[in-house]
Automatic annotation (TrEMBL):
The keyword Cytoplasm does not apply. SMART domains: Lactamase_B. It comes from the Bacteria. Coiled coil: none annotated. This is MBL fold metallo-hydrolase. The keyword Hydrolase applies. Keywords: Hydrolase, Signal. Residues 47-266 form the Metallo-beta-lactamase domain. Pfam families: Lactamase_B_2. PANTHER family: ZINC PHOSPHODIESTERASE ELAC PROTEIN 1. Residues 1-21 form the signal peptide.
């Protein structure tokens, strides 16, 4: 990294530091990268994709990968503060922790409404999870005379699609369909299966989450002028090597489909740099690290920096911005 790059990184870390923010804006929403791993292979040092926006009294999850419930509480956000969940898409690594979030929230008799936003299919997903909670809800704590509380109490689902916009807790949230899937736009599959990117316009800054996507002009337009771009990253060569190592029982056709998905529907470092430059974002946080090597953060950052001259951070779990 150049001297200028190191200076920009240091300036970003200072600017985003909670202590600095707290001194000037006590209610500032903080971003916590709860899980920074791109699935499906597990890791001993990274959890599945999940992000938290919290100002202490109100909290929002963006994706809910495995481990999101524990990480959310470890980050200082209670279930009572959770107002909304935003799912970018319905791949397992992004939804694996949702059952625990809903179940533990229910078990603790958490008051207040919770709105779950996501693409088409989210309502079926949530209804299935709520149905799976019913046996536990029926037995409750096993004390005679306990009242039955339906798991769906205070749960609302809002399905979003391209160019959707909602307001929740005074936050403006916009969504676009990205290029994580490659179904033709006029196909029934495209109408049924969509992957979303989100922009959160907070009182003091704007944060865009690419979710999983390949190169996408729609995401660039969504991110135009944003303060932070939280972007996914895939190390394509290493991912394909690991695919061969871990897929001994996978058919050749399935391997070919995986390879096409990885190559076309995720972002390599140069594509992140291009997206950030064209969108004119102030800084980039790289998460959802798929197939990446832990010793390669600097090369990834250098590749992004060849296309984008702003600050870049390769995130770890439980970092605060």
């Amino acid at each position: 990294m150049t001297r200028t790059g190191r200076a920009l990184l240091a300036a970003l870390l200072w600017w985003l530091a909670p202590a600095h923010a707290a001194a000037e804006q006590p209610a500032r929403f903080e971003l916590v990268t709860l899980g920074t791993l791109g699935g499906p292979l597990p890791s001993p040092i990274r959890s599945q994709p999940a992000n938290l926006l919290t100002n202490g009294s109100d909290s929002y999850l963006i994706d809910s990968g495995d481990g999101a419930a524990d990480a959310m509480v470890a980050a200082g956000a209670s279930f009572a503060s959770l107002r909304g969940i935003f799912l970018t898409h319905l791949h397992f690594d992004h939804i694996g922790g949702l059952f625990a979030v809903l179940g533990l929230r229910f078990q603790l008799d958490t008051p207040g409404p919770l709105t779950i936003h996501g693409p088409r299919g989210t309502r079926d997903l949530v209804n299935g999870l709520l149905a799976a909670m019913e046996p536990s809800a029926a037995v409750r704590y096993g004390v005679p005379g306990e009242r039955h509380v339906p798991p769906a109490r205070n749960i609302e689902v809002v399905e979003l699609t391209d160019m959707s916009a909602v307001r929740i807790g005074g936050i403006a949230v916009s969504a676009v369909v990205n290029s994580h899937y490659s179904f033709p736009p006029d196909s029934p599959e495209h109408a049924r299966h969509q992957s979303l990117s989100y922009r959160f316009d907070l009182p003091d800054r704007s944060i865009v989450f690419t979710g999983d996507t390949g190169p996408s002009p729609a995401v660039e337009r969504l991110a135009a002028g944003a303060d932070l771009l939280v972007a996914e990253l895939i190390d394509l060569p290493n991912t394909l090597v690991r695919l061969e190592a871990f897929s001994k029982t996978i058919s050749p056709q399935a391997k070919a489909e995986w390879a096409e998905h990885f190559e076309k529907q995720h972002l390599v470092p140069a594509e992140i740099g291009d997206m950030a430059r064209r969108a004119g974002v102030r800084a980039v946080i790289v998460s959802h690290l798929a197939g990446t090597r832990e010793d390669a953060a600097l090369p990834y950052m250098a590749e992004i920096a060849r296309r984008y001259d702003g600050p870049v951070i390769i995130a770890n779990d439980m970092q605060r911005f």
